[in-house]
Design a protein that fits this description.
Layout: H1 3-25, H2 28-49, H3 55-78, H4 81-96, H5 101-104, H6 107-115, H7 122-133, H8 138-144, H9 149-165, H10 175-197, E1 201-202, H11 208-224, H12 229-242, H13 268-283, H14 290-303, H15 312-325, H16 329-342, H17 345-358, H18 366-377, H19 381-394, E2 396-397, H20 398-412
Parallel strand pairs: 1-2
Helix pairs in contact: 1-2, 1-3, 1-6, 2-3, 3-4, 6-7, 7-9, 7-10, 8-9, 10-11, 10-12, 11-12, 12-13, 12-14, 13-14, 14-15, 15-16, 16-17, 17-18, 18-19, 19-20
């Protein structure tokens, strides 16, 4: 195997391997360090021995042994009795857990429920998920919250210490205790998917491993809590977005915008499943859930024969419903972008400028990008150029930088 192939395998398997290691060693930081050490060993061994038949189990086994070695070294250095007890418990726990595929299946869901424990504020739940489940660096998590890296590192450290010292269980809670955590769990599963669908930074637009994992978790949750409209709505939303994956980027990794995508590349079987789930979610009694409405919007995009033939008025109406269910400035921005297809870019720009003036989206990288596109369509090239430069400065994702560079070059023609 080449180093590039090993790195890709590690990216595909790291999330679930880390979740299992956290269960085995009972410590977030120790598990993260052990997994990195296992990856270093893989870089040495796999080019010679080849890819193991179950790379995730291999990483868990090697990481577990590295964790045990580290605890032993701490014992020798510190001579503490409680460290010796921990090491013996670690050995016993690891010997009882088979690191095969079936033993690993639910560990990611356990990790998400741990991150979403009611003892944590919503922001901490999201930050822990980004760091552990999505594998973002502390610096990347800090950027997502517009915080300094040092401040975010301290928040994450306190949360991990709280899990360890307070004995917060690493488990999917009993059925009676599921509902209070469900909103947070759904939010973080969608966060995992979003990072896979459109990464926050780096060279690649998408991380299919995270998107697949989020969909797998959505299916697990749907089986665990059937007949919940919000779960079916989220699963439908993820399936419908992911169905368009093959058309979203060129072979070289450049973004292909929705209006330019080859719709024959979209996964029609996945679209059909998503549409059925949307119908199930919307048919349930009570007010429609936000995820179901978002999925209905995605279904209209997925079923449209072309960009021009998309039912933009109905999509605008669904965004208006979303704003009534759970208003947010990001939904307002998306609504404005759709209004540009119904009432024209001038009206949409009025909405975007009013939204920007409120300051709620300061630092949100897609705000200048939407504004730049509207200005370009209105022929206001100087203002569009400034907005594209602002969008370029705001993003950490290279495919977006290249897209904005292409737009800037077009404005010079």
């Amino acid at each position: 195997m080449t180093p590039t192939e090993i790195e890709q395998t590690f990216r595909d398997e790291a999330g679930r391997a880390l979740a299992t290691l956290i269960r085995l060693v009972g410590d977030f930081d120790l598990a993260e360090d052990a997994l990195q050490e296992a990856f270093a060993v893989a870089l040495q061994r796999w080019p010679v021995s080849g890819r193991p038949s179950n790379p995730r189990a291999w990483l868990v086994n090697v990481g577990r042994n590295k964790a045990i070695d580290r605890v032993r070294r701490q014992i020798a250095f510190r001579g503490k009795q409680d460290q010796l007890t921990h090491e013996l418990e670690l050995n016993a726990s690891c010997s009882e857990q088979a690191a095969d595929a079936t033993a690993l299946d639910d560990d990611m869901l356990r990790l998400i429920f741990t991150c979403c424990h009611p003892a944590f504020a919503a922001e901490v739940q999201v930050a822990l998920t980004l760091r552990t489940v999505c594998g973002l660096t502390t610096a990347q998590v800090a950027r997502a919250f517009l915080a300094s890296e040092d401040a975010m590192a301290q928040r994450l450290l306190r949360a991990k210490q709280k899990i360890r010292l307070a004995g917060i269980p690493y488990e999917v809670p009993d059925r009676d205790a599921l509902a209070p955590r469900l909103r947070g769990v759904l939010a973080v599963i969608y966060l995992v998917f979003t990072e896979g669908y459109a990464a926050t930074s780096g060279e690649d637009l998408m991380r299919p491993d995270l998107a697949r994992e989020a969909i797998r978790l959505g299916r697990l949750l749907d089986a665990l809590m059937p007949q919940r409209g919000e779960i079916k709505g989220l699963l439908a939303l993820m399936l419908l977005h992911d169905a368009r994956r093959a058309g979203r980027a060129t072979a070289g990794g450049d973004i292909v915008l929705l209006e330019e995508q080859d719709r024959s590349l979209w996964d029609r079987a996945q679209i059909s499943e998503g549409v059925m789930l949307v119908e199930d979610a919307l048919s349930m009694p009570g007010r429609p859930e936000s995820y179901a409405v978002q999925a209905a919007i995605a279904a209209l995009h997925a079923q449209a024969p072309s960009y021009q033939d998309t039912d933009w008025p109905q999509i605008a109406g669904l965004y208006a419903v979303l704003l009534r269910i759970g208003p947010s400035p990001v939904i307002e921005l998306n609504h404005a972008a759709v209004i540009s297809m119904v009432d024209g870019p001038a009206r949409a720009l009025e909405l975007v400028d009013a939204l920007a003036a409120r300051g709620e989206l300061d630092g949100y990288e897609l705000l200048p990008a939407v504004r730049a596109d509207l200005l370009r369509r209105l022929g206001r090239h100087d203002a569009a150029r400034e907005a594209y430069l602002a969008a370029t400065a705001a993003t950490q994702l290279e495919p977006l930088r290249r897209l904005y560079a292409r737009r800037l070059a077009e404005l010079e023609i």
